[in-house]
Specification:
Arc Repressor Mutant, subunit A; 16 helices; 4-stranded antiparallel sheet; Aspartate Aminotransferase, domain 1; 479 residues; 8-stranded mixed sheet; alpha/beta; binds pyridoxal-5'-phosphate; Aspartate Aminotransferase, domain 2
């Protein structure tokens, strides 16, 4: 459905209906609104343009008479043609182009979230990102000041990224995760999502089976789906994925897991489960893709070591990122794996975007080697822990007999499971009317669920408290 980001100028000499005719015909002629696109109802257009319905009726009559719009059976209006004069050249049929290509469109709910996250006025209780006030401004300023002294050039980098960053990551992975990885085992990517993308396009065949936790972050990524993979959700318990339910793995299958501070459930896979999972996968020749986006964000005690740390046979590919600990805008992530795998990914990366931002890579190197990063991380953990406690207290006060939820030991997420079969899409839309933007659980799952992913990393504690009260009053009505 077409949306409008324009309003007529009521002070202009040109009549309002003519401005609307011009706006709509220009959009169609420019190819922004492709043939077949549906216009909103006349009532919705009157609201969007802040004009009387009769003005819309006049404008629509004129546009219909040009032959560029047509009424459809349901009483709506569609774009019929993009030229009102036969002399006008025809632009390409973009609709045909747009609907080809491997990517599915995002789910409408995800499209709405992606759009509204950039509009002011919403309390964002689902956003999986640090709040702007948690961004380490002073630290970044300090590092940027030093950049001219430490950066010899900002040219293209080699397939694995900046060697200095590779060395810094290699040291950190060993120190913090017990992962033995030489710089030759590490490829810097433009975010860990790109790591996933590269793995799916250059290591997996179409139709390969990819096992994931259910629910998982994957459902909203749709990366594997777009690459033609056959996704298979495996249920979880309190200790993590119930791997013994993996059946029918073939030689080109793969397991994708988020063992630490899982997105969206916040769970941490126990040490025993990690060991048993690795041993199961090794026995069954099933490679593991371990996504450790939240591993460093623990509160009370360190989580068990990464699965990759116990991998002595090169069965695990590990993904890391700075998006959750620092800033997603840096677009820096890394893939750790056997040399042959990393080289192949690096080669394809060079064919794709010729390397991640070198500014971000120099900045991360400075940050990781300066010692300031650890001080910053300690502060961040403390802040997130406070926000978690605040959100949990608000849930206890408002949702006590309406839902159950986890107490996350790190990361960003509380997985709020509603007791009743509440229509979660309706809750999502009603919450929007109250200025709340939330992430309904069904965008993460293979089957219908009645859960909501709450992230305490974005909204400030006061807003979060208010938001949980409002959410409870919405859910209560369905109880
Ligand atoms: C589990 C997980 N992996 C990866 C990402 C994305 O990371 P990046 O920004 O490095 O692509 C996210 C972001 O939400 C995530 O939750």
């Amino acid at each position: 459905m077409i949306e409008f980001e324009w309003k007529p100028d009521k002070t202009a000499k040109t009549p309002i209906y003519r401005q609307i005719v011009k706006y709509i015909s220009d959009k169609i002629a420019a190819g922004d609104w492709v043939i077949g696109s549906r216009l909103p109802s006349q009532r919705a257009m009157a609201l969007a343009f802040d004009v009387n319905r009769s003005t819309i009726v006049t404008a629509m009559e004129e546009l219909l008479s040009y032959g560029i719009l047509e009424s459809d059976f349901g009483g709506g209006t569609r774009v019929k043609s993009n030229s009102w004069s036969l002399l006008m050249s025809q632009p390409p049929d973009w609709n045909k182009y747009i609907s080809s290509g491997p990517f599915h469109a995002n789910l409408p709910t995800i499209q709405t979230i992606n759009k509204l996250e950039f509009e002011p006025g919403y309390i964002r209780i689902g956003t999986g990102e640090l709040a702007p006030e948690l961004y380490p401004n002073k630290l970044v300023t300090k590092i940027f000041r030093r950049m001219p002294e430490v950066v010899p050039h900002l040219g293209y980098l080699g397939p694995l990224g900046l060697p200095e960053l590779g060395r810094a990551l290699s040291e950190r992975l060993q120190l913090e995760q017990g992962i033995e990885a030489d710089p030759a085992n590490i490829m810097v990517a433009s975010g860990s999502l790109q790591g996933l993308q590269l793995i799916s396009v250059c290591m997996l065949k179409r139709g390969s089976r990819v096992y994931t936790e259910a629910p998982t972050y994957l459902k909203s990524l749709q990366i594997f789906q777009s690459a033609g993979m056959n996704l298979c959700g495996i249920p979880m318990d309190e200790e993590g994925i119930k791997y013994w339910n993996i059946k029918g793995a073939s030689i080109d299958s793969l397991l994708y897991t988020i063992p630490t501070h899982h997105n969206p459930t916040g769970l941490v896979m126990s040490e025993e489960r990690r060991k048993a999972l690795l041993s199961f996968c090794q026995k069954n020749c099933l490679p593991v893709l371990e996504d450790d986006a939240y591993g460093q964000l623990w509160f009370e005690e360190k989580p068990p070591k990464a699965i990759k740390a116990s991998d002595k046979t090169g069965s695990v590919i590990y993904l890391g990122t700075v998006s959750k600990t620092m800033a997603p805008g840096l677009r820096i992530g890394w893939v750790v794996g056997p040399e042959a795998v990393v080289q192949r990914l690096g080669d394809v990366k060079m064919q794709t975007d010729y390397g991640a931002s070198s500014v971000s890579q120099w900045m991360m190197t400075e940050l990781l080697t300066s010692g300031d990063y650890d001080i910053y991380l300690d502060d961040l953990r403390r802040e997130l822990k406070g926000r978690r406690d605040n959100a949990l207290a608000a849930l206890r006060r408002n949702f006590n007999d309406m839902a159950t939820w986890n107490r996350p030991s790190g990361g960003f997420y509380i997985w709020l499971r509603l007791n009743k079969k509440v229509p979660i899409d309706k809750v999502f839309h009603e919450a929007l009317q109250h200025g709340l933007l939330l992430n309904p659980g069904n965008i993460y799952d293979y089957i219908e669920n009645h859960a909501i992913r709450i992230s305490y990393a974005y909204a400030d504690p006061e807003d979060m408290t208010k938001a949980i009260e409002i959410l409870a009053s919405i859910v209560e009505k369905y109880d």
